[in-house]
Amino acid sequence: QTHAALNHILPALQQLGMPILIDITSGLRFAPGAQNAVVLYDYFLRAEKFLKKAQPDFILHLGGMPRSKPLNRFLQNSQSRYVLVNNLPFRQDPFHRVGLRFELSPERFCRILAQNGVNAASELLPVFLRAENRASAALDEWFNAQNKLSEPAILRSVLHNLPGENNLFLANSMPVRDADASGIFLPAANRIGVNYGVNGIDGTIASAVGFAAGNRQPTTAVLGDLAFFHDLNSLQLVRYSPVPVTLIVINNNGGGIFSFLPINRYEDVFTEYFGTPQNLDFKNAAGLFDLPYFAPRKMQDFRAVYKSAVASGKNSLIEVQSDRNENYAVHRELWELVTTQVAREIHEGTKI
Questions:
Q1: At residue 318, what are phi and psi to the nearest 5 degrees?
Q2: In sequence order, what DSSP letters do the residues of 143-189 get, joined into one string?
Q3: What does each C-alpha distance from 22 to 34, 38, 39, 100 come to in angstroms?
Q4: Cα–Cα distances in Å, from 276 out to 78, 79, 205, 267?
Q5: Does residue 162 come out as left (phi exceeding 0), alpha (psi in the -120 to 50 range) or beta?
């Protein structure tokens, strides 16, 4: 959605008095004034006690499929009326839950809502907002106490420090998921681009350069080592890009997303065919294309390096080393932290 379109969507959704679960790619996280916004759902929709308290009677789905697996599972398991609004003619109902579909843009749909003065109030709004606040406090405390590099912390730091009038381009499975789960709102001047799924592994660097050129705004691109390796020759485009591009490569030596799947238990095939480690670092690649190169080892160093690289106005490469097993363990720790906090509030009898 364009920024102009977003100005019509949020006010209309606010009138409905419902929790608004906002996917990172929707653009709504760039719009101010979203009092009903819920963005940490990827964490607390894993809490069984919360799910029992938060069963909706009605779901209004604007746009494409969400990135969050817990959110998709929540939609799949819901027994509510389900209305889908999307301007694409393709089937979008993998869970066979859609009861009514409007084939028009979310912006036009929301204009019609606003023109007809549709107002409502959902009993689930305070339920979701209390869970959101509890999750936000727990995550802030955890991340503020950490100086060790982790993939969720890197995406959170990028989103916190992305300057206004700068864009963000996300690639590959883990960066886009971590950005979606971060819950960070961005200035209205920012735009986001994504290469996701099959398209997230090839041509990613070239796509990021094109995104920067098309919008004529400096762009930060975050991608994994496999996506970077697949498109290594596009560093020539970065080298000569007239619009500054900052590349952040999270090098976990393979396909990090597969560590989250059941196949990771089958070590006889997992590493070679799914983890696919390449045992590469990209310092020499940066040198080959005359790109400034940075390799921070702590979160404090990463924040300083990233701010400096963006402020320089030069094309550059930041490589962050990660470990696939440690990354999985960090995510599980964060999921457990939030679900425990939300479940504890319910158990203690607080009206959530």
A1: -115, 120
A2: HHT--B--HHHHHHHHHHHPPTT-EEEEESHHHHHHHHHH-----TT
A3: 10, 6, 6, 21
A4: 37, 40, 20, 12
A5: beta
* C-alpha pair distances (Å), 217 with each of 19, 118, 192, 213, 293: 32, 38, 11, 7, 21
pLDDT the model gives residue 341: 92
Residues 29-48: pLDDT tens digits?
876 557 889 999 999 999 99
Is residue 208 within 8 A of residue 247, CB to CB? The reply is yes
Where is average pLDDT lowest: 90-94, 255-259, 287-291, 298-302?
255-259
Task: Determine phi and psi for 86, rounding to 5 degrees.
Answer: -155, 140
Q: Is the pTM of this model over 0.85?
A: yes
176 touches 159 (CB < 8 A): no
The values of phi and psi at residue 63, to 5°, are 90, -160
Could you state, in order of their start, the residue ranges of all structural domains in the chain?
3-38+57-121, 151-321
Q: What residue type is 144 in one-letter code?
A: N
Q: In angstroms, how far is CA 171 from the centroid of its own chain?
A: 10
Token pair of 173 as six digits: 């499975």
Q: Which CATH superfamily does the domain covering 151-321 fall into? A: Thiamin diphosphate (ThDP)-binding fold, Pyr/PP domains (3.40.50.970)
What element of type H or E holds 297?
Answer: none
**Which residues fall within 8 angstroms of residue 74, CB to CB, at 6 or more apart?**
41, 45, 51
pLDDT per position as a tens digit, 132-143: 999 999 999 999
pLDDT score of 4 more than 80: no
pLDDT above 60: residue 352: no
